Amino acid sequence: MKANLRARLILVSFVVLMSLVYAVPSTPLYRFIPQGIKKVLPSRKVNLGLDLQGGTHLVLEVDTGEAVATVVHNHVPDVRRTLEHKGIQVVSITPDENVKKRLTIRIGEEASAAKARQALADEYGKSWEIEIAGKNEIVMVLSKKELGEIENAVQHQAVEIIRSRVDEFGVAEPSIQPQGKNRIVVQLPGLKETERAKALIGRTAKLTFHVAMKNSELWGLVSLVDEKLNTGIETYLKAVKDISAMCFDVRDLDAISAILEEQKEGIAGIIPGGYRFAFGKAVEDESGNRYQGLYLVKKKPELGGELLKHAYVSYPKMLPAVNIEFNRRGALLFERVTGANVGEPLAIVLDGIVQSAPVIEEKIPRTSTGFISGRFTPEEANDLAIMLRAGALPASISVEFEQTVGPSLGRDSVQKGVKAAIVGTLFVLVFMMIYYLLCGLLANFALCLNLVILLGALAGLGATLTLPGIAGIILTMGMSVDANVIIFERMREEIRSGKTIRASIAGGYNKAFHTILDANVTTLIAAMVLFQFGTGPIRGFAVTLSLGIIGSMFTAIVVTRLVLDILASRRKFSRLLMLQLIRRSNVRFVERRRIAFVVSLLIIVVGGIFTIMRGSDNLGIDFRGGTLLLRTFRESVPIERVRESLAKIGLDKSILQQFDDGKGIIIRTEGESGTAGQIDDGLKEEFGRVLQNPEKFGQTSFVGPVVGKDLARQARFAILFSLLGIVIYISWRFEFRFAIAAIAALVHDVLITVGIFSFTGREITLPVIAALLMIIGYSLNDTIVVFDRIRENRRLLRKESFMRIVDLSINQTLSRTVLTSFTTLMVVTSLFVFGGEVIHDFAFAILVGVVVGTYSSIFVA
């Protein structure tokens, strides 16, 4: 026994120590630690999301004109084929360089312009305006409708690609919204590597592969160009050790670019047809001098990045490179290209810059992977792999505005939320200590230790904590208390049956183990599926909940058991006192099920009617977009006063973020242009002296939803698959009908909560979605505890009817159900009462959900 205790003590001590080591840098205690000790501690901290700490606010502009020009240019071969198929001679088809939406078509002298126009109208009349401009000239101009669709598609595609890049970069839960027709608002939480992130977001990442001229041949060709045209270009070029390309100092880039541009026509007459000069990426030699390569590559690429299937970082010869895998068509084409060009360099070009040009030594079979090398740093290789995986942007992007902003919840709301959470937690700790006495102190220790383990794990993983993550922590606290309550109530039963303290402790933990395991595993399955298929706030919630579940199981099953076993090993420890709220109850719940079903159905129907009547008004700005205003002041203004001025005109749900030390504010609110006028009038009334002219110093625009269609679709898949996982597990551990009952209860809880939200005129936002996920987890945990007791009683009471067993099981677990609900409600009520207006809806959703979840685990499931 002593050896077993010693082993468990060592394990617990190790976990506690490691958790503290990783958690401390994220706490205020870190500032008091001597510098020498700080060097030993891990440097990672828990990242806070946009809603809790703010970050970098970027406004990006998409060059939709470039995308339109690409579409027009891509139509050239199709238009030529259409006319030639009708027997019409085509002299030229020219995209207009100035009016990018226009094509000018010249046809042969003998061809009929009317016939050509009719042929084009039949094929392209729905999306192009086609007119005869002269005897042998036709003009095609993209219609307004088609232009709008192209611009929308380009903006949408850019949003999704940027989201993919940012997610893979490791920035958790960014905010990405379309703004107007060609802008994108991106907010990155607490990001230090802003320049790197901007480069990653804004780079087009168009990848192409071109056959290039051998370096030895290029030297001779450049000499010939210099000799015939007297350009002087050869004086800039040199061979550099360990760099295979013809090189020049990066400081001479402008001079060489000017020569190539000025002598463009003369050079074109000397170099082989279909080739062009291209510059390489800047690299350093051993002495630290920076050089760029000069290449001659074929204008037409052999294949492009759209054929890539996957890209990842590898380290051949201990240097970072990017391995690339093609899809089936790309692999076949790559095999053909390498087979036909053995001995030739293959230039790998990204956004017009040659990354490397390795010589093709042999035909590369379709089953092999290629790689891009080029003296990358590990960060450069990783960013390149991210961009290639996410795909190329459909058009160039520029950063129009950049600012560091405060938390989207507002500093005032964050402070209120923290205070409310502390008050709620203190209520729980005091109640547990009074109700369970010594065991309550143990449960409190386990709860605090669980929070330390969770904080340490979040810091160690570099995870980001946001309001959805806090929902996960609240659920974790509830499950941590619940696990201990289950154990203590089981121990109470064992003591009541006359067993010794040591036997009661062992019996209580053994009987509670399967209940805790099943309740936590079902919730963990849901969390893991949500993480796998979800994005943004869903993933944040899933990470926090998963870590919290693991921590709560460890503290409840291992830590508290260890302490009680140590105490029980002493002879003086012979009694374990606890208060008892609910003594033996004998409520006939099953008999009242029809009343419960009628009540539930009535609430769901009424809620459904209100939800249908309100329509899109049920959704907040996160789901349907709204107006974004940027306003500036001559001096810092308190965010509370801005919030109060908006509340006067009914816009208290607006999202506020300060910047420039409080001299600027970003307001996201519902409604369109008229709303901006109302807000400005309110701000003038409150801050007339210091508010700067909005027309001159402000910005107003309509922004799209934070949750786009793709994000919403992924969220639906995540929830669907998590429910499927729950069904499979419960069917395996219990029976299929138990699984269906559990899912019915979950759907019941969500429908009632959403219905009550609609009935009370509230809106569903991203934080509310996180609250609904928390409700699902809480309800599931509560339901499984009752199911587990039903399963146990069915084995013990074989002669009793199923209805009687259900009643008995609910009564036996009623004390635990009430206590867990009560302690969870303490925290949530504190958030609801003291947390401030901004998180009011979030707390209200959890408040309703906990009450409904408790009711459904008894009456519905």
Quick rundown:
With 861 residues, this protein is of the alpha+beta class.
Structure explained in plain terms:
The protein has 861 residues and is α+β, with helices and mostly antiparallel strands. It has 28 helices and 26 strands. A hairpin with a 2-residue loop joins strand 10 and strand 11. The longest helix is centred in the middle third of the chain and has 33 residues. The two termini are 42 Å apart.
Give the overall shape: elongated
Q: What share of the residues does DSSP label as strand, in percent? A: 15-25%
Estimate the mean pLDDT confidence: 83
Distance between the termini: 42 Å
**Coarse structural class:** alpha+beta
Sketch the major β-sheet: 5 strands, antiparallel
Helix share bin: 55-70%
Number of strands: 26
Report the C-alpha radius of gyration, rounded. Answer: 34 Å
Q: How many DSSP helices?
A: 28
Strand and helix map with partners:
Layout: H1 2-23, H2 35-40, E1 47-48, H3 50-53, E2 55-62, H4 64-85, E3 90-95, E4 102-107, H5 113-124, E5 128-134, E6 137-142, H6 144-169, E7 175-179, E8 183-189, H7 194-202, E9 207-211, H8 215-229, E10 238-240, E11 243-249, H9 253-262, H10 264-268, E12 275-279, E13 283-284, E14 290-298, E15 303-304, E16 308-314, E17 321-326, H11 328-340, E18 346-350, E19 353-356, E20 370-372, H12 378-390, E21 397-405, H13 411-436, H14 438-461, E22 464-465, H15 467-496, H16 501-533, H17 536-568, H18 593-614, H19 621-624, E23 626-632, H20 639-647, E24 655-659, E25 664-669, H21 673-687, H22 694-697, E26 699-703, H23 709-733, H24 736-759, H25 766-796, H26 802-812, H27 814-834, H28 840-859
Parallel strand pairs: 1-22
Antiparallel strand pairs: 2-8, 2-21, 3-4, 4-6, 5-6, 7-8, 9-15, 9-18, 10-11, 11-14, 12-14, 13-14, 16-17, 17-20, 18-19, 23-25, 23-26, 24-25
Helix pairs in contact: 1-14, 1-17, 6-7, 6-12, 13-14, 13-27, 14-15, 14-17, 15-16, 15-17, 15-25, 15-27, 16-17, 16-23, 16-25, 18-24, 20-21, 23-24, 24-25, 24-28, 25-26, 25-28, 27-28
